[in-house]
Structures are given as structure tokens and as C-alpha cells.
Amino acid sequence: MYQPIEDYGIIGDLHSVALVGKNGSIDLMSFPRFDSPTIFAALLDDETGGRFCIRPVVTDGRNKQMYLPDTNILLTRFLSDEGVGEISDFMPVGFFPHDHPRVLVRRVKTVRGVLRYSAVFEPRFDYGRADHSVEEREMEWVFASKGADGTAVRLRTAVPMTVTDNGAAVATFELRAGESAAFIMEEVGEGMPSPTAAPDYEITSFKDTQNFWRNWIGRSRYQGRWRETVNRSALALKLMFSQTYGSLVAAPTFGLPERIGGERNWDYRYTWIRDAAFSLYALLRLGFTDEAEAFMSWLTERFREGKQHAAGPLQIMYGHDGTKTLTEQSLPHLEGYRCSSPVRIGNGAYDQL
Asked: Which of 54, 220, 286, 332 has the greatest number of C-beta atoms within 10 Å?
């Protein structure tokens, strides 16, 4: 039931990321920040982790993933005798105000033939520890955690959805060649606007996100023979960058084993000074000076704070917002990737010398 790690593509908005499988399922997403509790974590527990899956009802497994050139917009293509379907996944990105909600956009279309799709929106809040409520409105459903995380999301779609007894929204729908359907997940919070209510949001946000990534990678000074590979690596590194704080997380994942079965399953959603320095050096070599300046500003703040402590001016790692204490704990209710336990959050290495 667990896909190989290499079968996942990544999308993000410089605040959080989502891992999208070749089978059309989003199986890991901390939301709304890199280090927030998950709302989807089927990658760490296929039964109880939660997922957001869209795929053809009939498929023979001939699936492919690729990125729209020079962007972090991910395309997942389903090939079968009945036809060809495609999902475009992205998180709108730009210099939004702080109170702008985080958004995930999924657009499914049939390229050839007639395909019947299934959709399952099954959030599991606070790492799957919290129950949630579902409020149904016209063409939208609001899912709100009853746990300490207090997370709430809105799902907007013109596809009729049915809410199940376990708090998931499901649908089966048919698209002919040229037809498409959008599923938009939006963060809900007190005083937050709801930009996804605009009738043209799907199209506008797609164009804006595409332009953002192409304008960004267009600043690269690399002109060598490996340009496509270098650009893709730079785009992946940029997804680890915090637009709010100027830091970089080592990885967007936690609890994944170094070896199947465990137990070295660490949380990497934090900023290691050493690792971030190497990443910034690579970006700086390509000409991305804004990221280097932002990181140096973040690092300077950590140094100033650390001068007050006898242990020294810098820790080896921090939360991407500068948090110093990253208390480690296990999540025994999650079985782990391919039963590799324990699943850990936090990282006890923060106080190492």
C-alpha cells in the first residue's frame, strides 16, 4: 500500500509543501507551515494518516510525473486504454500579506477519451490525533480540527461530494476529452480573506504561479551544458526556503526511515546551520543573492540571541522561525512508512554541541 519514495513529486509555496504520488494521492503535507502538524500523512500510516487522492477509477498503472518547464507546477499523467487523464498540482506562491491563506490547487482533466475519476478528501488533523467537524455549504466543505492545532481548511469544487461517516468527502465523476474539474483547498482562519471564491481564481493563480517560478529561475546565471538539471535542483532547493523568515529547512519530511523497519526516523523540517550554508552557497553560485541576504539576516538574529547564553552564540539547528527548543517525541499511533517505527517529531539534536 506504500508507494516508493521516488514516486513522489513535490509542490510548495515557500511556507509549506505537499508530496504528490504518481497515483494522484497527496500523502504528506504539514499545514500551514513547514513544521506544522500534518493534515495528510498516509505516507506514514496508510490507514489513519489521511490523504487527498484523485485518480481514474480504471487504471493500469501507466502513470508519469513531470514538471511544467521551469516551474514547480507538477503534472501527473494517467495512461490507459480508455484514455489519458492529467492532474495539475500547485500551491499559489507570491509575496502575499501575512494573513493571506495558504492554498492548494488540483485541476484534473481528460486529454483523450472518456474517464471516470474518484476523489477522496480525507484530512486527519494534528498528525492524525484530532477529531474534526465538517460543515457543508454550497459547493464548499469546511473541515475544522477539534484538537490543539486548531487548523481548519475549506474545500471548494463544482463536483458534488458526499461526506462519509469518518469525516471524509468523496466523489465519483466523469470527464470527456477537453473537460476539467478543479479542487481547491484553502486555509481558514479568523479575519482571513477567501481569495479562492473569485470565479477565475484557478486560472489566475495558475498563471501567476507559473510566472513567479519562471521569473525566479530566469535569474540564474548558469549557462552550462547541465542547465535543465541545475535549474530543477535550484527549484527544488527554493521550495525549502521560508519566504517569511529567510531560512531553509533541511527537508519537508519527518519519520521516514534511513532503512525500512527503522529506527533512525528523524524529523528534518528544521534549519541546520551547516546544511543551510551549503544550500545557500549553491544558490549564491547561481546568482540568487536575495536568498543569501535573507538567510544572513536570519542568521544574524540567531547570533544576537545566542550571545546571551554561555553555551555559545549558535546552536547547530533551529526551527525555521528561529525556535530554539525542538523537543523530540514519538507518535506511536502511526505505524510508520512500511511499518518503520517509531515516527518522530521534533529533534533532540538541537542541544548538541
From this structure: 54
Give backbone dihedrals phi and psi of 166, rounded to 5 degrees, phi first. -95, 15
Question: Amino acid letter at 265?
Answer: N
DSSP 51: E
Query: What whole-number distance in Å separates Cα of residue 45 and Cα of residue 339?
Result: 8
Q: What residues have CB less than 8 Å from 237, skipping those under 6 apart?
A: 248, 279, 282, 283
Q: Give the Cα separation of 269 and 30 in Å (integer).
A: 10
Dist CA 179 CA 139 (whole Å): 18
Residue among 349, 345, 348 nearest 265 (CA): 345
DSSP string, 165-197: TTS-EEEEEEEEBT-EEEEEEEE--TT---GGG
What is the Cα–Cα distance from 214 to 235, expressed in whole angstroms? Answer: 10
Distance of CA 30 to the CA centre of its chain: 7
